[in-house]
Amino acid sequence: MSIEKFMRNAVTGWMTAHDEHSDIVMSTRIRLARNLTGYHFPIAFTEEDAMAVDKAVAGVLLDADDSKYTYTKVADLPELERQVLVEKHLISPHLANPDRQGAVILSEDETISVMVNEEDHIRIQCIYPGLQLEDAYNQANEVDDHLEKELPYAFDEDFGYLTSCPSNTGTGMRASVMMHLPALTMTKQIDRIIPAISRLGMVVRGSYGEGSEAPGNVYQVSNQTTLGKTEQEILVDLGNITSRLIAHERNSRELLLAKSRVALENRLFRSLGTISYARLLPSGEAARCLSDVRLGIDIGIIEDIDMSILNELMIFMQPGFLQQYADVELSQEERDIFRAKLFRERLHAERTSASAEKSSEE
Amino acid sequence: MICENCKERPASVIITQESVVGSVERHLCDKCAFHTQTFHFDPNQEPLSIQQFLSHWFSGADPFQAQQQARGESQPGLECPSCGLTFQKFLDIGKFGCATCYDTFREKLPHVLRKLHNGHSIHGGKVPVSFNEMYAVKKKIEEIRVKMKVAIEAEHFEEAAALRDEANTLKQHLAQGGGTSDVD
Ligand SMILES: [Zn+2]
Ligand SMILES: [Zn+2]
What we know:
The structure holds two protein chains of two kinds. Chain A is of the alpha+beta class.
């Protein structure tokens, strides 16, 4: 398969953002945790419970002539495809375990993903490109209403939606925005900001997993608490923090440009050189360089690369995608070689065609 | 690391199990931890996950348990009738086993939830439509009861009887978990 076609097929809706903040906010995600009454939570339930829950949820979403959903039992997928779903953020690493009796119900454009029998019976997830908290919530809420009409939810007057983990009790909602914050990271301001944000009931972490280190300077900001506030209040609070982070990031970028332009240019172009010509590209280095080049494009230092290529490469540099494209299992060193090759091809192809377009316009 | 017990799922909980030969560290998945009998956590584990957070904050220093022991009651009283989870175990694994757990531990939960949710323990967000409808019926019944009391005091017994019938119909409705066509 040609790389262009592979990427077209594999890129999902949320990976292509085009709004005013899309240079900094990459995507918005809303997740609602729900459980049915009458069955133990997945941590304690039997295989029969698992099957009954699965059947009930799938029944509601798939049982319409115009259903836009497809159902996939996670255990039926080969390991590599499960990994790719995780890397696309469509299922959690937890659900990817084939022993879990888990399933995922995906909308056609993959903006809606309903995980069945993850930590809770139902996890509705909507991912939108850029900063779209309201839209993503409305979409998730619609799916929630649809399910609730047919299924008995576990709900309590005092505690709200009853979830397996007490950290989700209440709204069951986790709203998060993925942000690219290279200037705040370079200037070390992020170290001061993260604790300040956590005092506001929000949490900042690296975008892939729980660790605090952020590969590629991509951070996920989300609400920590789910109890006591309405969904709208949580979204407004998160939106405000996001706006402030955007403003901080923009300020830092300007400051960097004003104070140390040459050093910055040097760093960003060196990174561009690395991803354009390297023969071995470990994922950490690839993420760091992509972040630099992305920043270079955002602030107008690097001009002849399309941002969407960078978004794609950020996704495709991950092990699952790489191996799926290579169509063979790769050792770590083989992956580093293959990643370097992929980057060279992609960037080179793009830059020749960009300059070809330019010269044909002249 | 893989769970030592089932050797299938990834280990997500590290527990220190006391035995005759001393303490043994075991790495278990959520599910096996849920079904394991007795253990306690090593609070020095990093990073601080929910279960470690809970056991750190509440285990040992659980004020409820301390009260019970002070009154000479035998240890842990509450056990979920549906899934068998005890409150102590809830603190250890940091997860509920079923919706009934919330009812079982209702008294103790605000204390725990406030720690996790910036001081909040009462839900303020979305309410499912079906629950709203049920709630409306309950409220209607309460209103009717008040009117009934007034009617009886005024010795309007016929009106009181009519109101009683109305309330009974609504109660039957609730018992059937059903609709709300006669509620405005
Ligand atoms: Zn296990
Ligand atoms: Zn229970």
